Amino acid sequence: MTDTSSTRPGVLTPVLPRAPQLRAWWRRPHGSALALAIASAARHHRGIVVAVARDTHAAHTLEAELRGFADADLPVLHLPDWETLPYDVFSPHPDIVSQRVATLFRLPGLTRGVLVVPVATLLQRLAPRSFIQGSNLA
To answer: Are strands 76-78 and 47-53 parallel, antiparallel or unpaired?
Structure first.
């Protein structure tokens, strides 16, 4: 009998896409097991694992749980939602703007880590990389 436990998908060995354009869908495990699975996948994956949360609250919760399982060599970044509507007459909170710019600035230099993003944030346009890195400032 052959032992296939090391190749069988599980909480600590989740299935990841084999190509950059592909996606993997997971069922939600109980408690903090999702964060444990994402942290484990990110440790074994060459590149950034993008975890899409259903809303801002779920993204904050996942980020906090991931930080509990991540060690110093596994960065956990969060790209927060603007938390404003297109027709609002006020700007987003400065802390949100700062966190978004800091995350976008760090992303190109990362080779491994986890990026937590609310699904609404994926629908928004981003500033060009040159603007975030400061090369358009004069």
So the answer is: unpaired
